[in-house]
Structure formats: C-alpha cells, structure tokens
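One example copied in:
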Amino acid sequence: MDNELGRSFHELVREQGWLAFREREYRICKRFAGMNQSVIALGGGTVRYEWNTDILRGTGVMILLEADVSILAKRVRGADRPRVSPGVSLEEDLKRIWSSSAHLYRQAADLIYRTDTGRGIEEEVEDLLSFLKTRDIV
C-alpha cells in the first residue's frame, strides 16, 4: 500500500484515521479479487473486516500463517505500523487483536500453517506448494 499511497500507511492512519485506511484496503482487495496466478500477502487486519473476506472468498486459497505472539512481534517490530491499541506494548496489542479476532482469521483460512516450528523457509514453501498441488492450484 505504501507504493500506491506514496507514503506509509502509518501516515495515512495518523492524518485521516483508520476508516480512510480500511476504505483504501477494500478497494485494493477488490483489485486483488480480479487477479489470476498471484500470491497476495494481506496485512494482519484485512480479514477482520467481513467486506474484505466477502470480496476475496472464492477467488483463491487463503492461507493463515500463524506464529507465537512473541515471534510475530519480533517480525513486525521494525515496521512503521500504527497500533490498534495505542499505549500498550506491541506484544500486548497483538495479543488483544488475536484474542478478539482469532475466529475471524481461522474462518477465512483454507489452510492454517504454523511458521514458528523452526523449519527453514524453503521447507515451509515446499509444504505450502504441496498443499496447493493437492488442490490442483499449481
């Protein structure tokens, strides 16, 4: 989204609020829904909004990449991301999001895959490709 905006989404949220961000996110999801032969990495909050999952459902395979909150926090710590729950640690923010929305992430997923098992990225990619092959996707 940064490329499309010409600035970070943190700046968009700060200047125009979360609603402006979510509206732009929805327009992007509509574009994604029309794409073929693509891998699209959605932001962590995308599937928490039914309008996004409605537009994306049936357009491809949705894979939820799960990991322990401490690992997720380490992965996103360097990113310039606004907090959903300002005034708390990144770990606490992620815990709150997960406790209130885990069911939405899991409902949207065709596959739930753990990325914190110590396997290398090449092995994880092979696992995911094997799953997609069983569905005649690749």
